[in-house]
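Please review this one:
***
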Amino acid sequence: MNKSARGFTLIELLIVITVIGTLMAIALPSYSDYVLKGKLTEAMTVLSDLQVRQDAYYADNRVYSAMTPRTGQTQHFTSTAACVTGNAGQSYVCTLASTPLGYAYTINQAGAKTTTKPDGTTVQCWLKSPKGNC
C-alpha cells in the first residue's frame, strides 16, 4: 500500500518560518530607514527654496525678509519658526522641524546647515539618512 504524502511536516514549516523571520529582521529596518530618508529629503528641499528666496529678497531690498515665503504644513514637516531675521535684517535663520519624526533642520544667511536629531544632539550638516550620513 503506497500512500502519497500530503501536506508539510512540522520541520518543514518551522524551517520556512525561520527563513521568513530572518528575512524580515534584515529587510524591515532597511526599509524603515529608506522611507525616513525620503521624508528627510523634503526638509532639505523646502529649506533650499527658502534660502534662494531669502537671497533674492536681499538682492532687491538689502535686508532679509522676516516674512516666510513658505509657511505651514508640508507632507512630513511643520515650519515652526520658519525664517527669523536678526541684526537689523542682515541675518536670518530658517528652521523646519518635524514633530512626528523628531528632526529639525536649519540654515542661515551664511549657508551654515545644522540638524537636530530626535535625541537632541546637533550636527553641523543636514543629515540625509537616520544613520548619520551628511
